[in-house]
Design brief:
two-stranded antiparallel sheet, five-stranded antiparallel β-sheet, 7 strands, 2 domains, mainly beta
């Protein structure tokens, strides 16, 4: 008896590997990528069935970023705080310092 294992599986393709700054965490971990769907045979992707839409994805936050133009979002001066280690000005929503990488408390 022979079982044929075939199906459609997603595959993530990185379009722009130059990391950009994430507006959520402040680290340079945002890459441009898309998810394509491929017809596969025995778990080997053979033919692209559906081409996905490109989006920005932060590898640190593990979430899509609302930054369609690829530039980092400007920081508001009213929401600024300082890093406890290097003293650089930070956005209040940052979990990490983009200058030294220190975690905020």
């Amino acid at each position: 008896m022979f079982f044929l294992i075939a199906g459609v599986q997603p595959k993530t393709k990185i379009l722009d590997a130059h990391p950009r700054r994430c507006p959520r965490c402040g680290l340079h971990q945002v890459v441009r990528q898309r998810i394509d769907h491929y017809a596969s045979l025995f778990f080997i992707p053979l033919l692209r069935v559906k081409k996905g839409e490109p989006f920005d994805f932060c590898q640190r936050c593990r979430q899509a970023v609302d930054n369609a133009d690829g530039r980092s979002m400007p920081l508001r001066t009213a929401d600024r705080a300082t890093c406890p280690q290097c003293g650089a000005a930070l956005d209040a929503g940052f979990a990490y310092c983009p200058h030294c990488g220190c975690r905020r408390r």
